[in-house]
Amino acid sequence: MKPHSVLLAILCTLCLLATSSSAQATKQPDRQVAVTIDDLPAGMSDRLPAADITAMTAKLLGTLRDQKIPAVGFVNERKLYKLGEVDERIKALQMWLDYGFDLGNHTFSHPSLNQVGLKAWEDDVIQGESVIKLLLAQRNKKLRYFRHPFLDTGRDLQTRRQAEAFLVERGYRIAPVTLDGWDWMYAGVYEDAKKRGDTALQQDLVKSYLSYHDAVCAYTEKLAVQTIGYEPKQILLLHASQLEADHIGELMDMLRKRGYRFITLEEALGDQAYSLPDMYVGEEGTGWLDHWAITIGKPPQGAPVFPQWVIDRSKVLQLPQATVPVTPPAQ
Ligand SMILES: [Zn+2]
Fold this sequence. Notes:
By secondary structure, the chain is of the alpha/beta class. It has helices spanning 3-25, 50-66, 86-98, 118-127, 130-138, 157-169, 183-196, 199-228, 242-257, 265-269, 288-295, 308-316, and strands at 31-40, 71-75, 102-105, 145-146, 173-174, 179-180, 234-239, 260-263. The chain is globular and about 50 Å long.
């Protein structure tokens, strides 16, 4: 071998070694996440005509189907009742089933269990079943999942347990949440920017939405290990919106980069974490990792702070606000 060939061989070997060690350094654990999408047919249903809801739904579901990402959509049936648009709004829900996704109940009118009485809340749960039960039955499917509005599970343990027993009796499995990047707050501001053609603001919002979700994932993964000793199969909370229709693909890419693969809600719920003791009660709804941490007397700390400029923008638009912006409650 000539000297320069030897040098080349050494360089190549070094190069290979460097590549394999850097691949090892960036190797992520095998993470799993189930995607859930609330407030169907659309979070901003009052502001959107049915045609826009249909287009938004097709775009959102098209991306998820192309990328083979399972999802459950949680419905507020009150949003179906807009004069002259009922059929088209119901068709948007049918689209979920036609595309192979599942539907769950998110109550009829989105009341907080912490704000209304248990009986009124239970009536709202029942009222929220009528159309989706029918749509599912047409496909020989059963209504299986329930998601609490605002993640409010009751301000005292008795109410919480009574509501849970009621849900179980009606055949529901409660859908907890472990990953929540407060996308609904971005979605309202994004929608307005899109309507006004403000592309610069849209880009800023998407950048922040992606980086905040990334930060929430990093925080949650760490909190999980500190609290329960491992990262459970996560359940991500998103909302049906134009923002998700336009950008959910990028969010899924971010999750893949963190090592996540996508599983069904049923698979996620098979994780033993979801059977852990959970004594959480509180005025503010929150994620289940917080529930578990508080139950064992280790309240979580250091959650990433939601960008104030997005909250300020949202306030200017008079969009629904959280009562405690620093610890964002879910919608
Ligand atoms: Zn909701």
